[in-house]
Amino acid sequence: MVEKDTLDCKTQVLKKPFLRWTGGKNWLIPHLSSLTSKINYNNYHEPFLGGGSVFFSINNTNKAFLSDYNSDLINAYSQVKNSPAELLKYLKTFPQNKDFYYKLRDSNFSSQIKNAAKFIYLNKCSFNGIYRVNKAGKFNVPYGYKSIDLKKIEQLIYSCSNQLQSASLSSAGFEKSMSNIKKNDLVYLDPPYTISHNNNGFIKYNERLFSVLDQIKLSELINELRNRGVYYILSNAHHPQVKKIYDKFNDNVLTLKRRSLIAAKSSARNLYKEYIFTNIK
Ligand SMILES: C[S@@+](CC[C@H](N)C(=O)[O-])C[C@H]1O[C@@H](n2cnc3c(N)ncnc32)[C@H](O)[C@@H]1O
């Protein structure tokens, strides 16, 4: 007999991500829904997926195209989508302590499902959920003295798995993933910060920095999309250089305030401003 609790857990939709992610956009969701409620869009695209907080919050019954440059991250999403039960089986066998954290951090599995369980474990137990790799591409974030609430992660993984059923996942740079966006689709773009603003020095998400040239390339691609009748929403650092790059299409420029969680000291968790650029009027 299947217990009712287990059934609920497998069918419910929590609209929350299964990962903690630096630069995550939970704070943006209310602002974003007030924009998306003004339009009828077809497919949804998110080429800088990270923790996917925006994707998991939306009510889109059409297809979603989700991608990120980080292939380990996309593997975790694929396993959550296709094999949540097996993934949870491995995650539950991992002891939750400092010694095991470092042992797991140094290990390499040939199985993609074990790699996904490792990715989620390190994300949950690392310092502030930061994703950072060294020059050799190895994850090097220290232990964060955090434990995983197994009941909660089980609910999140099944809920996210349900929401991912209509999603196509790919590990790719933004130039490639933005090439299949069609008229009346919506794209939400959340590139890494190039500019360290408001004393926030954390700009490195993976071994390859997002340069000013990448920002310019992205602005050119946005221009092509808007000319094709695609809806876009871009969030970015509140910095004059960013405004100069993206504010040239006569679209909407909004300034939003958020509280940063990146700084290690709680006294440094101040209010920061962020830009939203969009052609949704
Ligand atoms: C600010 S985070 C996105 C956070 C996400 N919106 C959330 O709510 O969790 C930026 C993401 O862009 C990815 N990224 C960095 N460079 C990229 C590139 N050239 N192409 C595609 N993705 C890239 C990083 O791996 C990171 O996950």
What does this entry show, briefly?
By secondary structure, this protein is an alpha/beta fold. It has a single domain, classed as 3-Layer(aba) Sandwich (Rossmann fold).
Q: SSE layout and pairings?
A:
Elements: H1 4-11, H2 29-36, E1 44-46, H3 53-57, E2 64-68, H4 71-82, H5 84-93, H6 98-105, H7 112-125, H8 150-164, E3 167-171, H9 174-177, E4 186-189, H10 212-227, E5 231-237, H11 240-246, E6 252-259, E7 271-278
Parallel strand pairs: 1-2, 1-4, 2-3, 4-5
Antiparallel strand pairs: 5-7, 6-7
Helix pairs in contact: 4-7, 4-8, 5-7, 5-8
The structure holds S-adenosylmethionine.
Question: Which labels suit this protein?
Answer:
281 residues; alpha/beta; Rossmann fold; seven-stranded mixed β-sheet; 7 strands; binds S-adenosylmethionine
